[in-house]
Design brief:
516 residues, alpha/beta, Rossmann fold, GMP Synthetase, Chain A, domain 3, 17 helices, globular
Length: 516
């Protein structure tokens, strides 16, 4: 298995088919392949050798897709940069991974120049913009124009394909090492599950530095599809792109789905002009989605087949999948729609106790995963690697349980579990109860210090526009749905929740003010 495998196949079988559509420009598979091979040659000319790290600091674009193919074609290793990071965090990741080449677009040249000035190992900065080339930077298009195409280096299997840095919510970020086999095997899961449209049009609105988007890009290549990148997510432009570009497939986190649905509700005249009949596959994940939000989405996109993926960067990223066949009334009635599905085709999952022993079905424990998607390890951190991967099983740090039919139910991050008066409270369960309240748009549940109980349940809530609620009405609503010890003892109403670059709620930010 190798990263460029599907691109080679499409170049052979569909050379004149549209591969990328972006900003009014279109590239065929033959054209894309030629640019990738020439860019790879340019990287080799700059001194990139097999295994050398090449970073990309950019918004979503056609050139980002070229980067994802050209670096492995040249034999290099990917290191996509989180666009929300500070210069200090970026510099740390470059020095930690010995990154030697950086590709940057118009939006980040100032930060890139500062990082380059402070870096000990960065040799070249390539300007992938459309304006005047900044001093000291190499023009991206010149690398393509001035170099003849090279043969693919064909690194494969367990060869390192990319280093993907985690968010770094505590201490410094960790570099997750993923191989070619990791990335390709994980991306085949949605294809094998029938959740990817063959020859479809794939809208990429998730940030491309994130592994969820790279996985979607790989899915698009495997399906011989057309890629439509969006530089930055905007709900209105995303909805218009689905209609205008006849998008068939899109991956979104629940927060972004809610933003799209809210935009449709707030712009009824424009929404009435748009048709979403082309949308065939909507995959969601990264955080739980409430039943009410899922049902709103199904009503808005009736032709789409919904599926959910659960996983993490260390799993390349897919561990389990809840396919379209379980997004129906039967699965709602038997509770399976609340699960994150069954282990994906290339994975094994079990629920274990702190000693790594499998627990009985229905018992909450830690989710552990084994299979070809499990990372090679953390870059330069053998102790943390050994702690995470034990006897071939990746210990996720997520709490959950498995039913008798192999469906996995996610409870909470182990570290996010609230222990109140000796009782374990899983925030996801409380958030599900809150989501069914008609006034609640979004919520996040955390544990806060309590003199008697150790921790108490605290809810941070964003209300729907024009709605109102009180602690008492929230508590009364929850008592009808969950045990009394799980009901929030305190509530905080806010305008917005702090979100990561991919729309996940940053609970550590909410906890800071209570635990500092």
């Amino acid at each position: 298995m190798y990263m460029t495998q599907a691109l080679h196949r499409s170049m052979q079988q569909r050379p004149n088919a549209e591969a990328v559509r972006y900003m009014g420009r279109s590239l065929t598979y033959a054209g894309l392949g030629a640019r990738v091979a020439r860019l790879a040659a340019g990287l080799r000319k700059l001194g990139v050798q097999d295994g050398d790290r090449v970073a990309m600091f950019s918004l979503n674009s056609a050139r980002y897709i070229e980067y994802y193919m050209a670096v492995p074609w040249a034999g290099g290793v990917l290191n996509p940069v989180n666009i929300r990071w500070s210069a200090a965090e970026i510099l740390y990741s470059f020095e930690d991974s010995s990154t030697s080449v950086l590709i940057v677009d118009d939006n980040f040249t100032t930060v890139a120049a500062r990082v380059a000035a402070d870096s000990k190992g960065l040799r070249h900065v390539i300007y992938a913009g459309d304006g005047e080339v900044p001093p000291g930077m190499i023009p991206y298009e010149a690398l393509i124009a001035e170099n003849p195409p090279m043969e693919d280096r064909l690194r494969r299997g367990d060869d390192l394909a990319g280093i993907f840095y985690t968010g770094g919510t505590t201490g410094f970020p960790k570099g997750v090492m993923l191989s070619h086999a990791n990335l390709v095997s994980s991306s085949t899961n949605s294809l094998m599950a029938g959740t990817t449209t063959i020859g479809g049009t794939f809208l990429h609105v998730m940030p491309m530095f994130h592994l969820a988007c790279l996985s979607a890009i790989n899915n698009g290549f495997l399906a011989n599809g057309t890629h439509v990148p969006m530089a930055l997510f905007d709900p209105g432009r995303a909805m218009e792109a689905v209609a205008q570009d006849q998008v068939t497939d899109v991956v979104l986190v629940p927060t972004l789905i809610q933003m799209c649905l809210d935009w449709l509700d707030q712009n009824p005249a424009r929404a009435a002009e748009l048709s979403f009949a082309s949308l065939r596959a909507l995959r969601y994940g990264a955080s739980p989605m409430s039943l009410s939000l899922l049902q709103r989405a199904q009503a808005a996109f009736p032709e789409a087949r919904f599926s959910q993926g659960y996983g993490m960067t260390e799993l390349s990223p897919v561990a389990t999948m809840l396919g379209p066949e379980y997004h129906n009334e039967e699965s709602l009635a038997n509770g399976r729609m609340r699960s994150v599905g069954r282990p994906a085709f290339t994975t094994e999952v079990r629920i274990v106790d702190p000693e790594g022993r499998e627990v009985p079905r229905g018992t909450v424990g830690e989710i552990a995963v084994r299979g070809p998607g499990v990372m090679l390890g953390y870059w330069n951190q053998p102790e943390q690697t050994a702690a995470a991967i034990r006897n071939g099983w990746m210990h996720t740090g997520d709490g959950g349980y498995m039913d008798e039919d192999g469906f996995v139910f996610l409870c909470d991050r182990i570290k996010d579990m609230i222990i109140s008066g000796g009782e374990n409270v899983y925030s996801a369960e409380v958030e599900a109860a809150l989501a069914s309240h008609p006034a609640v748009a979004q919520s996040a549940v955390i544990g806060v210090p309590h003199e008697k109980w150790g921790e108490s349940v605290h809810a941070v809530i964003v209300l729907r526009q024009g709605a109102s609620a009180t602690l008492e009405t929230i508590q009364s609503h929850c008592r009808e749905r969950i045990a009394s010890y799980k009901v929030p003892r305190s509530v905080e109403f806010v305008e917005a929740l702090p979100l990561s670059s991919v729309g996940k709620v940053l609970k550590h930010e909410l906890r800071k003010q209570h635990w500092k």
